[in-house]
Amino acid sequence: LQASDLIITPATTFKEKPDPSGLVFGTVFTDNMLTIKWSLASGWEKPYIKPLENLSLHPASSSLHYAIELFEGMKAYRGVDGKIRLFRPSLNMDRMARSARRTTLPCFDQNELLECIRKLVEVEKEWVPYSTAASLYIRPTLIGTEPSLGVKKPTKALLYVILSPVGPYFASGSFNPISLWADPKYVRAWKGGTGDCKLGGNYGSSIYAQQEALELGCQQVLWLYGEDHQITEVGTMNLFLYWINEDGENELATPPLDGIILPGVTRQSILDLACNW
């Protein structure tokens, strides 16, 4: 995978940019996308930036039947100086590479893919909201496209990236509290599983519990683990706990990276800041 091979044939017709104050998460998409095909026989093909379009997949594609796929979530922000910046994207590339190994999808050069993503954001720079309350969400995705019903490592895959201008994930806003629902009868992940990878299957299997939480008036699920009901993470985010201990000391704690929780970029950033405070 080489960014120097990137072929750019952008859209010639453009959609109207939405009002940043009225964005609903993940429902509006930009004019262009990045696609890169891979096969065991030929390796990575040339990357393309082209108009956003539907995918053409064989109905036996392994991603559709056996969830051989992964995704990432990152953002581009427009600063008060007008410059566009990605937030610690190398951490997303590291996590994406780990997810690829776990799902037997093809490895890739993280720096080269990141450069292709930067080029896509550059092409779509006017889609980065002029707002401190909104951003451009970047969704890299890697799926197995093996046209076979055999349960095996795929010999074909597709990596694509789509962009979506977004406001706060929750309708209540970015800095307002949300309610959590915890019930040990549901388990999101377990040791030896894939809870530390960003896979669609981890999210799809959690929707049943999430719907129950909504029906009970809560916005998210607080996932528990083990006979002692250890706190792990929330459905769409990691978790921190802050308190003053018996000795009057301030303490900040978060569950460890033991294979059960997703190693979040925001989580790591908070730890980096707190350790140097």
TrEMBL record:
Root EC class: transferase
Example GO BP: L-valine biosynthetic process
Listed InterPro entries: Aminotrans_IV (IPR001544), Aminotrans_IV_CS (IPR018300), Aminotransferase-like (IPR036038), B_amino_transII (IPR005786), BCAT-like_C (IPR043132), BCAT-like_N (IPR043131), BCAT_family (IPR033939)
Protein EC: 2.6.1.42
Cofactor(s) of this protein: pyridoxal 5'-phosphate
Assigned GO CC terms: mitochondrion
Catalysed transformations (reactions): L-leucine + 2-oxoglutarate = 4-methyl-2-oxopentanoate + L-glutamate; L-isoleucine + 2-oxoglutarate = (S)-3-methyl-2-oxopentanoate + L-glutamate; L-valine + 2-oxoglutarate = 3-methyl-2-oxobutanoate + L-glutamate
Keyword annotations from UniProtKB, A to Z: Amino-acid biosynthesis, Aminotransferase, Branched-chain amino acid biosynthesis, Pyridoxal phosphate, Transferase
NCBIfam families according to UniProt: ilvE_II
Similarity annotation: Belongs to the class-IV pyridoxal-phosphate-dependent aminotransferase family.
Record protein name field: Branched-chain-amino-acid aminotransferase
Origin species: Chauna torquata
The encoding gene: Bcat1
